[in-house]
UniProtKB/TrEMBL annotation:
One of its GO terms (molecular function) is tRNA-specific adenosine-34 deaminase activity. Catalyzes the deamination of adenosine to inosine at the wobble position 34 of tRNA(Arg2). Its EC number is 3.5.4.33. Residues 15-124 form the CMP/dCMP-type deaminase domain. This is tRNA-specific adenosine deaminase. It catalyses: adenosine(34) in tRNA + H2O + H(+) = inosine(34) in tRNA + NH4(+). Zn(2+) binds at residues 66, 96, 99. It holds the Pfam family dCMP_cyt_deam_1. Coiled coil: none annotated. Homodimer. It comes from Roseibium suaedae. Binds 1 zinc ion per subunit. GO terms for biological process: tRNA wobble adenosine to inosine editing.
Length: 168
């Protein structure tokens, strides 16, 4: 902006916000095609995608290679900082405790996520990480963004896994 203040990221109902979640969904689809749990994430800085990826835990033999952690690592490297206070994270599934911790430590400004995760989520379910007194930083949280397509990706993936398991 002309006065030097940063452009705020769009609200999820605005076209650019939808585009960011669409890219996160695309990354989730790519992860699913690699037989990874289909979760995708996009990290946005000043209205532009800084990093985008999907889960890679199997591919990298790394249980921490969740989509959120991968994009946070990539963005920190690109910006040369361990803090991302002017960045927004779009992710297709409610972050787990590990990812919520990474989001907090990176000081991410806003978190937008699609499907809730009653079993493993840590934002609106489970530990509710950002509500804990020991939490270093809590981003603004917007849930239910493109929830249906995100949930459908996961449901389809796990249904196909169950079918494969019964075929063995």
């Amino acid at each position: 902006m002309p006065d030097g203040t940063p452009n705020p990221s769009p609200k999820p109902s605005e076209p650019a916000g939808n585009l960011f979640m669409e890219e996160a969904l695309r990354q989730a689809e790519l992860a699913g095609a690699r037989a990874e749990v289909p979760v995708g994430a996009v990290l946005v800085h000043e209205g532009r995608i800084l990093a985008a990826d999907g889960n890679r835990t199997l591919e990298l033999h790394d249980p921490t290679a969740h989509a959120e952690v991968l994009v946070i690592r990539a963005a920190c490297k690109k910006l040369g900082s361990q803090r991302l206070p002017d960045c927004d994270l779009y992710v297709t599934l409610e972050p787990c405790p590990m990812c919520a911790g990474a989001i907090s430590f990176a000081r991410i400004r806003r978190l937008y996520f699609g499907a809730g995760d009653e079993k493993g989520g840590a934002v609106e379910h489970g530990t509710r990480f950002f509500c804990q007194p020991t939490c270093h930083h809590a981003p603004d949280v917007y849930s239910g963004i493109s929830e249906r397509p995100a949930a459908l990706l996961l449901k389809t993936f796990f249904k196909s896994r169950r079918i494969q398991d019964t075929d063995l």
